[in-house]
Amino acid sequence: MTRDKNQKASLPSKIKPFQTPKGVHDILPYDHEYYTYIKKVVRHRLRQAGFKRISTPIFEYTNVFARSIGDATDIVEKEMYTFEDKKGRNLTLKPEGTAGVVRAYIEHGMKQLPQPVELYYIEPHFRYDRPQKGRYRQFWQLGFEIIGELDAALDAQVILLANKINEDLGIEKLFDIQLNTIGSLEDRKSYIQALKDYYYDKERSLCEHCKVRLQKNPLRLLDCKNEDCMILAELAPKMTDYLSKESLEYYEDVKSYLNELDIPFTENPKLVRGLDYYSNTVFEFWDAKEGAQNAIGGGGRYDGLIEKMGGLPTPAVGYAAGIERIIAHMKREKVRVPHKDNIHVFVAQLGKEAKKKCLKLIDEMREYGIRTIGALGKGSMRQQLKLADKFNVPYTLILGITEVREGTIIIRNMEKGTQEIVKFDQVIDELISKIGEKNLDKYSPGELLY
Questions:
Q1: For residues 448 and 160, what is the distance between their CA atoms, to the nearest angstrom?
Q2: pTM for this structure?
Q3: Dist. CA 387–CA 56, nearest whole Å
Q4: Choosing a second label site near 196 at 20 to 30 A (CA), which of 13, 44, 75, 141?
């Protein structure tokens, strides 16, 4: 029998499956192993140093970022996801972490706590940026801040902690630490005027972005990646010639502390960072081969930000790094991530009575720390054993009608293909002896580290 043309035309069309929007991506189980490991490393290092975790909202009032980051920065001008709520208030998905932490420090009266206050975060952020390698529109950052004390030794400790985290992750040798000072706000006023004077009558040689930066944010002219702009920047006045004695002494102290800690660094007089709130010390971790194009993070001192945000004058220093970029470097170095996702035991059963007994057994094994999967569907024993192979488990428990009647269960060694019959009430002890106490995923809720 054949369909006529009208019948064929009336058939439903195939529905096109959805995909993620441009610039965002799913974090699949394999990659979650990296995220989990990085979070554990960060928490461990920062707890040792007395930091406490903070989480700020995914969105804030837009002015939190416009005032802190700077109206003339690329982030505020081009990259923020801003929207109005139902009452017409402007809100923005957070593009970076420091502004929200500072807002929280002021709002919750943390000035009354013992100073400095040490805080860290591991959270998603959002920027409408051009997607490319290691750069996404939704991305995760780790960051930490020391608020309430002005001391060059703290700047050095922040760089040390960031370097220790990279070391723990097996990637510290991939990066050069770029270091600079951009002086105080007063220092920069005279320097910015010197830059404007230098670039006067050179505007035709600047890229379109730098023509705007010259009027709004001249410091950003120094870190443009356009070839003509880089040549001009190389010949531009140097910040160090416009620094006060106090700023120069502070910078020398930072360098001396880093030398004492045996942390190598490269002085980079053109390093300015892309956010307006920085002052004095700035630093970044650049890819040793690709430079700034593949940097993983950076930070610096921001002593004027809290006052600018409505708080009392309070010094602060911090660091932030992109987790996706860290993972890309770990994969490049073939860093193996330890994890506890492998299943110890698959439970295969046949018949309703066997399934009933398996449900309680599976729960008990999990409580003992044996990672277990089983009691699935109505497949034949052969199908279930094939499934156990796919899960790559070392052991499979087999429980059928005979085993239920006799109060036994079969333990199958999947690698050797051998099996043994044990008493049902002794199977957990047998499995623990085979798996090993140290390999169990055991915990007490009260002992969990958050």
A1: 28
A2: 0.85
A3: 43
A4: 75
